[in-house]
Each structure stands twice: as C-alpha cells, then as structure tokens.
Design goal:
With about 230 residues, the protein is α+β, with helices and mostly antiparallel strands. It is about 65% helix and about 15% strand. It has seven helices and four strands. α1 (about 1-30) runs antiparallel to α5, α4 (about 80-110) packs antiparallel against α5 (about 115-145) and α6 (about 150-160) packs antiparallel against α7. The radius of gyration is 26 Å and the shape is elongated.
Length: about 230
C-alpha cells in the first residue's frame, strides 16, 4: 500500500508538475492569448465542483471534521494513504483551479497572456510540492514509522496498572500498515514471581493493550531476567 502510494506521488504529482511548468514556460515565451474563455471557465467550474465533492468525502472519511487537532497535525498523523493521498490531491486540485482561473482572468483583463503562463508555472510548483510532501510521508512509512505518542502513553499506562510491574524501561511501536502496529516493550517485574505467574501477567497485559488499542496486531513483551531467575518471556 505504501509503495504504490509513493509511486502515485512521484508519477501523478511529479510528472504532472513538471509538465505544467514546461507548458507555463512555453506560454510565457510565446505569450499566446487564451481563447474560448467561456469554455475554460465552464470546465474549471465543473472541475471545482467535482474536486470539492471528492475533498468533502476524503475530509469526512479521514475524520478531519471530528478531530480537535489542527488540520496539518491531523494530516501528518494519518498513516492511511487511502485518506491522505486523495485529500492532498484534492487540496492541490482546488488550489490549482483557483490559480488557473485567476491566470485566465488577469490575462484577459489586462490583455497580458503572460499571466496565463505564470499561473501554469505556479500550478506546476504546487504539484511538485505536494509530490515531495507525499513522497516524504510514504517513504517514512515504508521504512517503518513510529506510532504517535498517544499509543505509547496508553500502553505504558496499561502496563503500570499491573501491580507486579514496577516500570516500563523501553517501548517502541512501529506502523506496518494503517491499522497494523507492532509493539515491543521491556518491563520490570518483582523478583519473587514464578515463571508461570510472569507468563500469566504478560498474557493478561497483552489482552488489555489490544482491547484499548485494536491496531496492535503484534506485541512482544520482555521481562527483566531477574524475575524468578528465569530467562526473558516473550
């Protein structure tokens, strides 16, 4: 999923941005006046409605309308390319439509075709910027991106609620998918526990953490080697 999202980011936005900049430079050099303005405005209006509808669907599906966090933070925290890739595409498209309409208007208003070319260049830069943003996000997810701090805080709290666990010395959570998080943690237990008791506590702890964080699909818990003088339990 993350690999093909990276391919989409590079091809759709990178290639599209490059072509838009190329066409913009050609318009600036040739300074050909735009024709059929009514048709152009009509197509842009239809595109705005279509992209606006798609944006609203992506906005609601991603939970942005329910999030108390700022849009940018919510966007960066999203690990699902099925949400943040279409949303970024829709935002870039809506901004690009606005820039294109402004370029047409200024070119016609002042009889300066250069504005149309400049608008195309701006759109290309916008698309290239979105390509860099999405490529960076999907690259980090491909390499293994840590889960947000809220996940670690919850699992640490769940572990410390166990009377036999005195401390959590290490906890790392990585995304393998949007709803697939692997967690490894090391805990300290009382030395008087037997191997059977330690195993029972670890099992109960895993069930508790999965109940609180369903996205935890793989959990590895290592205890201190001093617990009942036994080897680590995983």
């Amino acid at each position: 999923m993350y690999f093909w999202s990276l391919v989409v980011a590079v091809l759709l936005f990178g290639l599209g941005g490059g072509l838009s900049i190329y066409e913009g430079v050609q318009h600036v050099i040739r300074r050909a006046a735009p024709h059929h303005l009514l048709w152009s405005y009509g197509i842009l209006a239809v595109a705005f409605v279509a992209e606006g509808s798609s944006f609203l669907v992506a906005w609601r599906h991603g939970g942005f309308d329910r999030s108390a966090k700022p849009f940018w933070q919510t966007f960066r925290n999203s690990k699902d390319p099925r949400v943040f890739v279409p949303l970024a595409e829709d935002v870039a498209a809506l901004l690009g439509i606005g820039v294109a309409a402004s370029g047409l208007f200024l070119a016609d208003r002042f009889q300066m075709p250069i504005f149309d070319g400049i608008a195309s260049i701006v759109i290309g830069v916008l698309l290239a910027g979105v390509a860099v943003l999405l490529a960076d996000e999907t690259r980090s997810l491909l390499l293994g991106e840590r889960a947000d701090g809220d996940v670690l805080r919850r699992v640490r709290a769940a572990a410390l609620r166990e009377p036999a666990i005195s401390a959590v010395t290490q906890a790392v959570a990585l995304h393998l998918g949007p709803d697939d998080i692997v967690l490894t943690m090391r805990v300290l237990m009382a030395r008087t526990l037997s191997v059977v008791e330690a195993e029972s506590i670890v099992g109960r702890l895993k069930r508790t953490m999965v109940a609180e964080q369903p996205r935890l699909t793989r959990i590895f818990v290592e205890t201190n080697a001093q617990a009942a003088q036994s080897p680590p339990i995983t």
